[in-house]
Specification:
five-stranded antiparallel β-sheet; 18 strands; 28% helix; globular
Length: 299
C-alpha cells in the first residue's frame, strides 16, 4: 500500500475544472481547453506523497523548468503557452503555474542515463544490462557509461513503481517510428543539458522526460531537468564506487530509512511528518541546484 498520506482537496477556481491531483502537480482545464498545471510544495519518496510540504519547492521546479525549456527550444518545442495567473486563482499560485497546450501524451517515461546508479545499477549488478542494453564489466555505483543510453519506463499510477522496459516494448506500444523519435530526442536533450550542467560544475547523472503529440509534432511536456526528475551531482565530489552527494531529496530518503524516523518502508503504514531540519536541508539543496544551473539568485 502507498500513495498519499492525506490527499489534498483541489482548490476551486472559477472557470477552471480540476482534472487530476498528482504526486506534485495539480492539473486543471480552462475554458479555452488548455491545461493549467500548478506545482505544489509536496514531496514524494518511496511511492508515498509525504505529509510534510517543502516551502518554495513548486516554484523552484516551475522556474527551473522554464529556464531549461528556453535552453532546449531549438531541439524540441515545449507545451508552455503562458505563465500568466488565471483570473481568480489564489495568490499562492504565482510562480508555480503554467498554462500549457493539451497534448496526446505518450505513456512512457523517457529516461536518459549517462552514469550508473539507482535502478540501473540494481539491474546491472544482476544481469550486466540496463533495460536489456549490455554494458561492460567493471562498472560500479557512479561510473560514467561509455555513452549515454535510453532506458524507458512505463508510467505508473500514484503509489506504484514505474517499470523499466526494453526499447522493443516501447516500439511495440507506440510504434517503431515514434520509439525511434523518442530515443533520439531524449538523448539529444540529455547531451545538451549534460554539457550545460558540466560547465556549471554539475554532473547530470540521469534524467527523465515526458512527451506528447500536438498533431504530428513531438512536444516536450511536464517538468524538465529539475531535482525531482534528475540526479544532479557536484562534479568536484564525483568518485565512483559509492553513492554520490546530490542536489535532490536524498536527505529525505536517508531520514525515512533511519532508526530516528521509526518508519518501516516495507509496512503498509504511511511515513511520519519530517523534522524541520530535514525540510530545511532539502530545500537548500533544491535552491542551490537552481542557482548553480541558472546563475540566478533565488531571492
Amino acid at each position: 500500500m502507498s500513495g498519499f498520506v492525506e490527499k489534498p482537496e483541489p482548490v476551486e477556481v472559477p472557470g477552471l475544472v480540476h482534472i487530476h491531483t498528482g504526486k506534485v502537480r495539480d492539473l486543471y482545464r480552462n475554458e479555452a481547453g488548455d491545461l493549467v498545471m500548478v506545482a505544489s510544495d509536496r514531496m514524494s519518496a518511496y511511492d508515498w506523497v509525504l505529509p510534510t510540504e517543502f516551502p518554495d519547492k513548486g516554484r523552484v521546479l516551475t522556474q527551473l523548468s522554464l529556464w531549461w525549456f528556453e535552453k532546449l527550444s531549438d531541439l524540441v518545442p515545449n507545451h508552455v503557452i503562458s505563465t500568466d495567473l488565471p483570473p481568480g486563482a489564489p495568490a499562492d499560485w504565482a510562480g508555480r503555474t503554467l498554462i500549457c497546450r493539451s497534448l496526446r501524451m505518450i505513456p512512457v517515461e523517457c529516461v536518459a542515463r549517462g552514469y550508473l546508479t539507482g535502478s540501473g545499477l540494481a539491474e546491472y549488478e544482476q544481469t550486466r544490462t540496463v533495460c536489456g542494453l549490455a554494458l561492460p564489466e567493471g562498472l560500479t555505483d557512479g561510473s560514467e557509461l561509455p555513452a549515454p543510453i535510453f532506458t524507458p519506463a512505463t508510467k505508473a499510477a500514484v503509489g506504484d513503481h514505474d517499470e523499466n522496459v526494453p526499447y522493443e516494448e516501447v516500439a511495440h506500444q507506440a510504434g517503431a517510428e515514434t520509439a525511434a523519435l523518442l530515443r533520439r530526442t531524449t538523448l539529444d536533450i540529455y547531451g545538451r543539458a549534460r554539457d550545460i550542467a558540466r560547465d556549471r560544475g554539475i554532473i547530470l547523472a540521469d534524467t527523465k522526460f515526458e512527451f506528447g503529440f500536438d498533431g504530428d509534432d513531438l512536444v516536450l511536456a511536464d517538468e524538465v531537468l529539475t531535482p525531482d526528475s534528475s540526479r544532479f551531482w557536484p562534479a568536484a565530489d564525483w568518485e565512483p564506487g559509492h553513492p554520490q552527494p546530490s542536489f535532490d531529496k536524498q536527505y529525505v530518503r536517508d531520514w525515512l530509512t533511519s532508526p530516528e524516523s521509526g518508519w518501516d518502508r516495507r509496512s503498509e503504514q504511511p511515513p511520519p511528518p519530517l523534522p524541520r531540519e530535514i525540510v530545511d536541508a532539502t530545500r537548500a539543496k533544491y535552491l542551490e541546484a537552481y542557482e548553480l544551473l541558472t546563475g540566478l539568485s533565488w531571492r
